[in-house]
């Protein structure tokens, strides 16, 4: 006798459980990374080693747990792990949007608009290589696999796309706060003194940071919807981080001195809005063509 096929309720329960497991894997990884960073700092580590510790922990915890939760057969479909080269397409979308906004800022502001005021070529190249490696391991790969892959992919077969996207975006915004709690609990369990954490890094306003996360999360979902691969989300994520850190970073660290006419924070929101508008039009046109 052939085994009974799972009911729709069983499939829903399983997919929701895998989506939740994906989010929990990422939060657990962030919590462990916070404890590992505090322990490394307490042991006297500094510089590149201190930067690498949380990145390695998040990558090595999140990726295997999410992949195991979904099973190999679901990697291409649910997790959208298709065609890694599409990461270049995602990066191109992000860099093009940022470039257009910066060009507009330059033209609108004239001599007071966006301008490159100094370049240290060797320092810039070194910074780009290190930043891309660390950002891919700490943020882009694990976040996209867990959230735009595991959470969204697990829910979209049972919920309308907009609702699955809303839940995924909420999970993205809540992840930092959950990670703070996880770090505190794990630090207590392991006997490691962890420094007080904040929801928003660098003293940013928590509300503004939450709005930025939500906007970024929506854009990443649109990237997945249009390109059809989580690798494109990884590419866009990396482009976004690199551009932001160049705009907001210290030229002595990045090797690139910039001036912006309207303020870097406004420019960041502007190129997120431009990306969302263009990709949103593509999604709407595609849906219209199917009718």
From TrEMBL:
It holds the Pfam family Rce1-like. Residues 127-240 form the CAAX prenyl protease 2/Lysostaphin resistance protein A-like domain. GO terms for molecular function: endopeptidase activity. InterPro entries: Rce1/LyrA-like_dom. Keywords: Membrane, Transmembrane, Transmembrane helix. The chain crosses the membrane at residues 20-40, 52-73, 85-104, 124-141, 162-186, 206-223, 230-248, 268-284. The keyword Transmembrane applies. GO terms for biological process: CAAX-box protein maturation. This is CAAX prenyl protease 2/Lysostaphin resistance protein A-like domain-containing protein. It comes from Quadrisphaera granulorum.
């Amino acid at each position: 006798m052939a085994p009974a096929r799972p009911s729709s309720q069983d499939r829903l329960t399983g997919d929701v459980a895998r989506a939740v497991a994906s989010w929990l894997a990422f939060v657990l990884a962030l919590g462990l990374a916070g404890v590992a960073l505090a322990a490394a700092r307490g042991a006297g580590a500094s510089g590149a080693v201190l930067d690498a510790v949380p990145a390695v922990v998040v990558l090595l915890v999140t990726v295997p747990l999410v992949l195991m939760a979904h099973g190999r057969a679901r990697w291409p479909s649910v997790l959208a792990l298709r065609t890694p080269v599409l990461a270049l397409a995602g990066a191109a979308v992000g860099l093009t949007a940022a470039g257009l906004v910066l060009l507009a800022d330059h033209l609108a502001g004239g001599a007071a608009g966006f301008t490159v005021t100094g370049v240290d070529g060797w320092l810039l190249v070194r910074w780009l290589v290190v930043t891309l490696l660390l950002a891919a391991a700490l943020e882009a790969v694990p976040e996209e696999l867990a959230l735009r892959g595991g959470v969204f992919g697990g829910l979209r077969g049972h919920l309308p796309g907009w609702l699955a996207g809303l839940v995924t975006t909420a999970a993205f915004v809540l992840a930092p706060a959950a990670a703070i709690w996880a770090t505190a609990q794990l630090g207590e369990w392991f006997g490691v003194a962890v420094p007080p954490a904040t929801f928003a890094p660098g003293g940013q306003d928590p509300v503004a940071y939450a709005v930025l996360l939500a906007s970024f999360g929506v854009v990443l979902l649109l990237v997945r919807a249009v390109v059809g691969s989580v690798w494109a989300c990884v590419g866009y994520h990396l482009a976004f981080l690199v551009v932001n850190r160049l705009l907001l970073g210290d030229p002595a660290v990045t090797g690139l001195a910039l001036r912006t006419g309207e303020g870097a924070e406004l420019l960041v929101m502007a190129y997120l809005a431009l990306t969302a508008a263009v990709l949103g039009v593509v999604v709407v046109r595609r849906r219209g063509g199917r009718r």
